[in-house]
Amino acid sequence: MTITDTPIESISPPPAPSLLRRPWFLSLVAFGVVVVLGALWFKIFEPIQVLPRIRLAPGFSLTDQAGAQVTSEDLRGSVVLYTFTHSACEEPCPAPEPTMAAIRDRIDEVDTGDTPVRFVTLSFDGTDTPAVLTDRAEAMGADGEQWFYATADEARLKAIIGSGFKTYFERLDNGTFAFDPALILVDGRGVVRGEYRYQTLASDTDRILSHIDILGEEVRNSNGPAGLAYEAAHFFLCYP
Amino acid sequence: MKRIVLPLLMVLVAGCSGDDSGGLSVDDPWGRPTPDVATTAAFFATISNAGTADETLVGATTDACRVIELHESQMDDGVMRMQQLAGGIPVPAGTTVVLQPGGLHIMCIDKQVPLVEGDEVALDLEFVDGDGERHTESITAAVEDR
Amino acid sequence: MTTVRRTLLALAAGVALAAVAWFVVLPRFQSHVFTGTVIQSQTPAPDIALATSTGATASLGDFEDQVVVVYFGYTFCPDVCPTTLSTLKKAVDKLGGASDDLQVVMVSVDPARDTPEMLREYLGFFDPDFLGMTGSEDDIASVATVYGVFFAAEPGTADTGYLVSHTARLMVIDRDGYLKLVMPGDVTVDQLVSDLEYLL
Predict the structure, then answer these.
(1) Does A58 touch chain C (CB under 8 A)?
(2) What is the C-alpha to C-alpha distance for residues B71 and C88, in angstroms, rounded to an integer?
(3) Are residues A220 and A119 in the same domain?
(4) Using CA atoms, how far apart are residues A54 and A72, in angstroms rounded to an integer?
């Protein structure tokens, strides 16, 4: 016969409940897990994708292919894709005008809501007359409205294209230009959101279209409290 | 009783609408203090037309400025543009038009006197009513930094 | 209370706290909500090297470790420019001692009328510490271009001569010399104070 049925443990003072049993500790663990998972979820799945706000697009006054003045302020409120060329640029011309045309043709695939999408091709040659610009525009399939060709005062072009759009160009002795081909995406507030240089012509169309789509989504959704989520997306570098 | 109330009401109404000009009233006229070297300034006010005839503010005169023009500033998400309103500022019957910074204003050109906080500037606003008749509203604009 | 219920409650409390942290505390502290557009530039703000209202020349590098607010305006401007400058002055007053490291710069878009002396007198009325900058039309245009500022003289009447239409945004450059923020010209004093306080 045993002396007692009581287990030995009950004689010694009851052990402290393990940490896992303590409510405050459990709360803390849950808190930590949720915060980390939340951050991971945002980082990995990127529920909101944003384009970086790279820098301010230049302010300018251009003369378009119709001879009309177009300023950077006129284009405010529109998503604008810029590219650069010169009228004497012959095949195989490195200027990505065909890419521009392809994006323009497929622009209906993306939804930018009420925000219009415009296409602007700037000529490096400030002496280009509206007639010269029109010839080039027609050859490339630009309608002069949604997509127009323009140039600016020769003295200002270096500041606009070089300093503003960070795109190298230089007039050569033979009258043509050396330049780095580039497409620059600017949002409705005049901020550069995408730069596409040294592109492979085929793939860039899809990439730029998807980026325009992201911009469109941002314009539609980032007002009010949802704007905070967009700032978070920038904070977590949810860039495509 | 009626004999007392009616004249009293009339006095009140007249007081609000600023004497003989029907239903027109100019409230809260003011201008911002400006640097002495500045040759321009702007005046603002709230113009109400409680009458039945349309009115148009077509100009103003004051000793404080050589010339006055009516202008409108437009802020389109960033760019500031200012244009002269050659046709004046219409104040249709039953409406209130607010002249305020960044919008409609009375532009003072060749400012003749310093505009210092606490000063008062007398202005004669010229209106044209629906019948093409001109009349003048005299106001005193307070110079204060708002 | 059973152990299971207590555990569940504790877990729920933790999750609730996390939610509060995410949606209330984090936005308030981590990412200050700015008025206007935040720029995440990888390169320092383009330089502005022009003649100043003090009679010297200055460039952005002279304002090392200071927050610089750049405004493009002109002294003939009756309405918007004085309003913006007055707003800036009120913000500076509200910031108090914190504004010691703040430099307000107005770049003239009307160099023909705005000499350094004119700018000094004009800006001194608002705040003697406000700095005016001017130069040749060409130099100013180059600076304006890279700051996304468009300006153009537009014909006025015989009395006004000409008026200048210009982009009326405020550019805020942080202590490290990066363009941080672009604010609309009709920003309020409280919005300015809130954002500048955060950057200072």
Answers:
(1) yes
(2) 24
(3) yes
(4) 17
B80 near A CB under 8 A: no
Global pTM reads 0.78
**Of residues C161 and C33, more confidently modeled:** C161
Q: Which residues of chain B neighbour C166 with C-beta distances below 8 Å?
A: 79-80
| Strand pairing report for A79-85 and A117-123 | parallel
Residue among B37, B102, B145 minimizing CB distance to C79? B102
Which residue range forms the structural domain that includes residue A174? 55-230
CB-facing half-sphere around the CA of C94: CA atoms within 13 A: 16
CA distance B101 to chain C (A): 6
| Gap between the Cα atoms of A98 and A109, Å rounded | 18
Q: Do A174 and A83 fall within a single domain?
A: yes
Tell me, what's the pLDDT at B11?
43
Q: Mutate which of A19, A28, A34, A42 to test chain C, going by most C C-beta atoms within 10 A? A: A34
Q: Determine, for residues B78 and A190 on separate chains, whether the beta-carbon distance falls below 8 Å.
A: yes
Q: Examine residue A135 and state whether it is found in any structural domain, yes or no.
A: yes
Structure-block tokens of residue B25: 């009233």
Residue holding tokens 């305006």? C73
pLDDT in tens, C108-148: 999 999 999 999 999 999 999 999 999 999 999 999 999 99
B37-56 tens-digit pLDDT: 999 999 999 999 998 889 99
Query: Which ranges in chain B belong to alpha helices (H)?
Result: 2-17
Tell whether A51 lies on the interface with C, counting CB pairs under 8 A: no
What CATH number is attached to the domain comprising B121? 2.60.40.1890
Asked whether this complex has an ipTM greater than 0.90, the answer is no
Closest residue to C186, CB basis, from B69, B71, B75: B75
* Residue listed under structure tokens 């202590």: C175
Chain C contact present for A36, CB below 8 A: no
CATH at residue A159: 3.40.30.10
Based on its alpha-carbon atoms, the radius of gyration of chain A, rounded to whole angstroms, reads 29
> Is A240 within the bounds of a domain?
no
What percent of chain C is modeled with pLDDT above 90? 55
Residues A155 and A39 in one domain: no
Chains in contact with A via at least 3 Cβ–Cβ pairs below 8 Å: B, C
Those residues with Cβ within 8 angstroms of residue A77's Cβ, 6 or more apart along the chain or in another chain:
A115, A116, A188, B77
- List, in sequence order, every residue forming a beta bridge with A122; answer none if it has no partner: A84, A150
Q: Do B40 and C168 touch (CB under 8 A)?
A: no
How does DSSP assign A67-119, residue by residue? S-EEETTTTTTSEEEEEEE-TT--SS--S-HHHHHHHHHTGGGS--TT--EEE
Count the domains in chain A: 2
Facing B82 at nearest CB: one of C124, C163, C167: C163
Percent of chain A clearing pLDDT 70 (strictly above)? 83
Question: For residue A189, is it within any domain?
Answer: yes
